[in-house]
Amino acid sequence: MKKVSVIIPTYKTGDYIYQCIDSLEKQTLSKHDFEVLIILNGEKEPYYSKIKNYLETKNIDSKLFYTEVCGVSNARNIGLDNSQGENICFVDDDDWVSPYYLQNLHKLINSDCIAISNIVKYDEKKQNYTSSSYTSKLKFNKKVPVIKYRSYLSNCGAKMIPISMINEKRFNTNFQNSEDALFMFSISDKLKYFNTSDKDSIYYIRRRSNSLSRVISISKSLINAINFVSALTNVYIHNLSKYSFILFLTRLVAPLKLVIHRIISKSKKDLKYDK
User: Fold this and answer.
1) Is this structure's pTM higher than 0.90?
2) What share of the chain is helix, strand, coil (3-state, %, to 5)?
3) Measured between alpha carbons, how far is 17 from 10 in angstroms, rounded to an integer?
4) Is 155 helix (H, G, I), strand (E, B) or coil?
5) What are phi and psi of 192, to 5 degrees?
6) In what order do the strands lie in the sheet with 118-123?
7) Rg (CA), the chain
8) Is residue 156 within 8 Å of residue 90, measured between CB atoms?
9) d(Cα 17, Cα 178) in Å, to the nearest integer?
10) Distances from the Cα of 200 to the Cαs of 36, 101, 122, 140, in angstroms?
11) What are the pLDDT digits (tens) for 94-118?
């Protein structure tokens, strides 16, 4: 049994995944204590061979899986089904982590909490680093309430999750967007609080102009939001006594706010071109 399983879904892999893999090889947590599971979905070659060859040069316990079924949710589910870790870390293939990331988060983890890290954004176009809005008010090295830092439940990165909190729950494969938020709410029935890491335990998010989350249309975002509300409600009503009602309400609003934000952004952009 490993202490940690790191799950990385990837699709039509770019060279950025090698920085992600390199950051895991540099972890201070013993190489015997964690495994890396990479799940390639969609087109297989030349991506599979390139990743396989690169992994063979690395001093990490790694496994490479392939599925022709496209989708990050299905890929993450394959990772969960094949993981051997007591705790789970999800890392996107274009993101990477600081050297102390796994070791420091593992020190904070227990069955009642999720350990969360600092987040720094890297803009690929501008080539600069900025603090994330997620961590603008975050208190490091603290036990913090879930509802106050609920934005961390919008995605599954930048955290370590005990496998006992996940159990048989999996990502909903019907969603192209907001699947993280739905999954994170589904496991919140056992979540009592967050433990925050030190400031130097960092999850780096790469901002790419062609990433999936940035190319979904407003109409698809609206449909996704409606479906999300329905799916979230279904999760909540099946275990009313375990889930927080306040947290449920805040999660309902999140995707709708995203749609409104995209509508406003598009309106401003259209107005700019009309001038």
Assistant:
1) yes
2) 45, 25, 35
3) 8
4) coil
5) -100, -35
6) 96-97, 202-207, 118-123, 128-131
7) 18
8) yes
9) 22
10) 22, 8, 16, 10
11) 999 999 999 999 999 999 999 999 9
